[in-house]
Design brief:
Elements (H helix, E strand, L loop, with lengths): L1 H32 L14 E2 L19 E16 L2 E8 L8 E4 L3 E8 L10 E2 L19 E7 L4 E6 L5 H6 L3 E7 L9 E10 L9 E3 L3 H6 L4 E4 L12 E4 L3 E10 L4 E6 L3 E5 L6 E5 L1 E4 L3 E8 L4 E7 L3 H6 L2 E7 L21 H17 L4 H15 L1 H4 L17 H5 L3 H8 L1 E2 L2 E3 L2 E3 L2 E2 L7 H12 L11 H9 L11
Parallel strand pairs: 1-2, 2-5, 3-11, 4-9, 10-14, 13-21
Antiparallel strand pairs: 2-3, 5-7, 6-8, 8-9, 10-12, 14-19, 15-18, 15-20, 16-17, 16-19, 20-21, 22-25, 23-24
Helix pairs in contact: 5-6, 6-10, 9-11, 10-11
Protein name: Copper-containing nitrite reductase
Organism: Ralstonia pickettii (Burkholderia pickettii)
Cofactor: Cu(+); Cu(2+)
Length: about 500
């Protein structure tokens, strides 16, 4: 009996085990088949090799109605590049550019990611993609020594625009050297069509030398820890998006800019001077804000801004923490071509001298000089007095009341070797403006002075005579007749050249 009982007990235990096993297997199967939000099933079709682009270009829209397996191959390259004119820096890059290559996939795609570290690299690197759901965003799985390749796979569950960056210690140093970029995860239906898409990313850089100090500049860890950047830049270099590298569009076209902030430290106050964003997908998510003037982009964050070009001109992209724009390099240009629309924007309609409560005493000197010019009794002293009054209301905002200018922005007129070399060429600059590089007292300036067409010949002559006879300049005199002759001449192709 005991043996029979034992057999029966074993049979019951076996049956229970089979039932429990079946139940557990069913539960596991149901769990495996339950789709996560953003999971649209297994990949379909043949694997796709992702098209990666260098900034400011963006890969074409995905234009797919199904999830796919997308293979991304990204190479780390450490290379010396120009950060400002005459200034070089050793950048650590994804894809050989700062920011790194733009990656574009579809929500629900399975991404097979290959990170390759060039054999010439001196450091190991990895990648943390903020669009990855998983520990470290892929960092632990992608740690790659020089001359090696790593691979990991993730499913792009969440739509949005996401930053990626290196997360190898010291993390801040790797990011500060340019190791960041953007990955766009499109919603299944894609983004609304626009005429132009651009890729712009801000970063703060910490060099041992000061802003624009020449030569190869090493990284300065102390400045980085103290958050005292030498440069704040769009796309890794001063002037990266200006001149012949400016962004372009035409009147009536829609522009979408994917804007990221690699940091490592600063928050960006992104603004396009003269434009209002029709829509902003702020912080890279799905919420949309309309009619935005300036949008905040945190370090390690991104946004998508969209607007329509209404009138032609050069629109300046800036970090509106404005000293970063004019004194650390955070500027870019969007050039809009097309027909003017005076109903939307008239342009300048009036520019006349205004001296406020200083008008009465100062304008008397201008009146006296005008009368003396008519009577033929005008003296240099008359011109100096009249020029002082006119300079205060016309020129002092940029060049300052003492003629010292603003270092690196507006050149000095005081003790100016530029004026001393050829005093007469100042007439050309006042009448025709100046756009280009000049060197004054050993320092380079690359700003824009518009032509002072609102000033008559007497006023130009008096201002320049005042400048030539002030602040230890060489002296001299400019007459209205001199100005008249220069005004009659065609504007030179470039107002002045360096000396």
């Amino acid at each position: 009996m005991s043996r029979l009982h034992t057999v029966r007990s074993l049979m019951r235990a076996g049956l229970i085990s089979v039932v429990l096993g079946a139940l557990l297997a069913g539960t596991a199967a149901r769990a495996a088949s339950a789709k996560l939000p953003g999971d649209f099933g297994p990949p379909r079709g043949e694997p796709i090799h992702a098209v990666l682009t260098s900034p400011p270009l963006v890969p074409p829209p995905v234009n797919r109605t199904y999830p796919a397996k997308v293979i991304v191959e990204l190479e780390v390259v450490e290379k010396e590049m120009q950060i400002s004119e005459g200034v070089s820096y050793t950048f650590w890059t994804f894809g050989g550019t700062v920011p790194g290559s733009f990656i574009r996939v579809r929500q629900g795609d399975t991404v097979e990611f290959h990170l390759k570290n060039h054999p010439s690299s001196k450091m190991p690197h990895n990648i943390d993609l903020h669009g990855v759901t998983g520990p470290g965003g892929g960092a632990a799985s992608s740690f790659t020594a020089p001359g090696h390749e790593s691979q990991f796979t993730f499913k792009a569950l969440n739509e949005g625009i996401y930053v990626y960056h290196c997360a190898t210690a010291p993390v801040g140093m790797h990011i500060a050297n340019g190791m960041y970029g953007l990955i766009l995860v499109e919603p299944p239906e894609g983004l609304p069509k626009v005429d132009h898409e651009y890729y712009v990313m801000q970063g703060d850089f910490y060099t041992a030398g000061k802003y624009r100090e020449k030569g190869l500049q090493p990284f300065d860890m102390e400045k980085a820890i103290d958050e005292r950047p030498s440069y704040v830049l769009f796309n890794g270099a001063e002037g990266a998006l200006t001149g012949d590298k400016a962004l372009h569009a035409k009147v009536g076209e829609t522009v979408r800019i994917f804007v990221g902030n690699g940091g490592p430290n600063l928050v960006s106050s992104f603004h396009v001077i003269g434009a209002i964003f029709d829509q902003v997908r702020y912080e890279g998510g799905t919420n949309v804000q309309k009619n935005v003037q300036t949008t905040l982009i945190p370090a390690g964050g991104a946004a998508v801004v969209k607007f329509t070009a209404r009138v032609p001109g050069s629109y300046v992209l800036v970090d509106h923490s404005i000293f970063r724009a004019f004194n650390k390099g955070a500027m870019a240009i969007l050039k809009i071509d097309g027909a003017e629309n005076k109903l939307v924007y008239s342009g300048k309609e009036l520019d006349s001298v205004y001296l406020g409560d200083r008008a009465a005493p100062n304008m008397s000197a201008v009146t006296k000089a005008t009368q003396a010019s008519v009577s033929g009794t005008l003296t240099v002293q008359d011109q100096v007095q009249a020029g002082r009054a006119l300079f205060a209301g016309t020129c002092s905002v940029c060049h300052q009341g003492n003629g010292a200018g603003l270092p690196g922005v507006f050149p000095p007129l005081a003790k100016s070797d530029f004026l001393a070399a050829d005093p007469k060429r100042a007439m050309n600059i006042v009448l025709h403006g100046l756009n280009g590089k000049i060197k004054v007292n050993g320092q380079e300036y690359d700003s824009v002075m518009p032509p002072m067409t609102q000033l008559n010949d007497d006023e130009v002559a008096n201002i320049l005579t005042y400048v030539l006879n002030s602040w230890d300049n060489p002296g001299g005199r400019v007459s209205a007749e001199d100005v008249k002759k220069v005004r009659a001449q065609p504007a030179p192709a470039k107002a002045v050249a360096e000396h």
